[in-house]
Amino acid sequence: MNKYDTQTLQEYDRRYVWHPFTQMKEWEEDEPIVIERGEGSYLIDTDGTRYLDGVAAIWTNVHGHCKKEINEAIKAQVDRLEHSTLLGLAGEQPALLAKRLVDIAPPGLCKVFYSDNGSTAVEIAVKMAFQYQQHQGHTGKTKFISFTNAYHGDTVGAMSVGGIDIYHDVYSPLLFPTIKAPAPYCYRCPMETSDSSSCGKLCLKELERLMADHAHELAALVIEPRVQGAGGMITQPEGFVRAVRELCNKYNVLMIADEVAVGFGRTGAMFACEKEGVTPDLMALSKGITAGYLPLAATLTTQQVYDAFLGEYRELKTFFHGHTFTGNPIACAAALASLDLIEKEQLLANLQPKIEYLKDRLNSLQSLAHVGDVRQEGLIGGIELVRNRATKESYHWEERIGVLVCRAARKHGIFLRPLGNIIVVFPPLSISLEELKELMDGIEASIREVTE
Q1: Amino acid 200: pLDDT
Q2: Tens digits of per-residue pLDDT, 415-441?
């Protein structure tokens, strides 16, 4: 294999690659880091510089980069079979993985529909919920309740149930309308109360009002349980997910849980819904499912949802949806190896000291002059930077404060990716306490350098 120098690779990238969520005019004027290798919690560029991966390859990495056991599982599968369709055939690896997913999922979820990324997993759940209601004879139940600040992906259906204007407004003519409910954001309460302890309760009260008014036309509700990720790592009050489940039951509305970012141990439990004893009717999974190795997603459903699609061939009750690489055996092999490692290395139990350390470090950041709020759920952190702590005045978007902090972090050997003015802490779950200290030290120093 030819070894290309950094400058050549940068030129090829600028000339030929269109990057996601990136203003390419600025990118073409920059000299990007070119990543060549990974080892554990670190990414290594073509010049040999190491960067602690503070975003887990955009919220996917579980066991660190280039984990030997997953590498070997993938190599072994490649030598046996690279891909075979699930259209008309069963597959060894997807069958084995489906059983494992059902075994660890919230009780009652028992069927697995594969796709290839989080957006499609949510899109599938939305289509299933819609078609379920039609098969049940509820032909008027065609609408969805979604939350402000929500992000569920970038396909048209997933965008429709999202709620982040900066991402979705430009596509509004393409999207179907939904009923928007206020999501708890206790630092900036959408219900305009100064009592943070009542914020979630007021949101639930408004949610119930909306559900009562629209129950006759609601097919499903879509929620990111415990944490709204792209909205700013916004955490929900304890009991919020459980209360939402109860309202869905009360008003006969299906509950779709988007666990794409929070599944597979990220919150300290295998799935976020578990923390409140909730089983959704449909659950979307991706990102950590293959430990960050390969594109794979799954939409899990209950027997009740599945049974609504059973019938005679002539009835056309089939779920007419599919993907070319549905249930790809190499991706499934990686997922199975990851689940083996979660058990073998007692990942969930070993997370607890790291979660406590992160809590302490996040709380200590609140003494900084321009840290308005810190938020945490498991090994997820959000640090909201503000111009004025007393008034909660935000930095203007065009000041790019989050970007500047993340650029400063590179000098400390750390790679970060912000959400506007919010610094995201989302390392590989396997990160050591020493590495977590390195990460938080670098973040603190970078915030001080840029804001003070």
Answers
A1: 77
A2: 999 999 999 999 999 999 999 999 999
In this structure, are residues 76 and 333 in contact, taking their beta carbons and an 8 Å threshold?
Answer: yes
**pLDDT-based confidence at residue 1 (cuts at 50, 70, 90):** low
Counts of helices then strands in the chain (DSSP H, E):
15, 17
Contacts of 75 (CB under 8 A, 6+ apart): none
- Which residue is associated with the tokens 């697995």? 112
Residue 147, strand partner residues: 181
Measured distance CA(129)–CA(114) in Å, rounded: 16
Which residues, including other chains, have CB under 8 Å from residue 273's CB and lie 6 or more apart?
106, 225, 241, 257, 259, 279, 280, 283
Q: Is there a contact between 426 and 60 (Cβ–Cβ < 8 Å)?
A: no
Beta-carbon contacts of residue 91 (< 8 Å; ≥ 6 apart): 84, 327, 329, 332
Q: What does the alpha-carbon distance between residue 260 and residue 59 come to, in Å, rounded to a whole number? A: 9
**Helix, strand and coil in the chain, % to nearest 5:** 45, 20, 40
Describe the crossing of helices 68-78 and 329-344 by its angle, rounded to 10 degrees: 150
d(CA 24, CA 301): 40
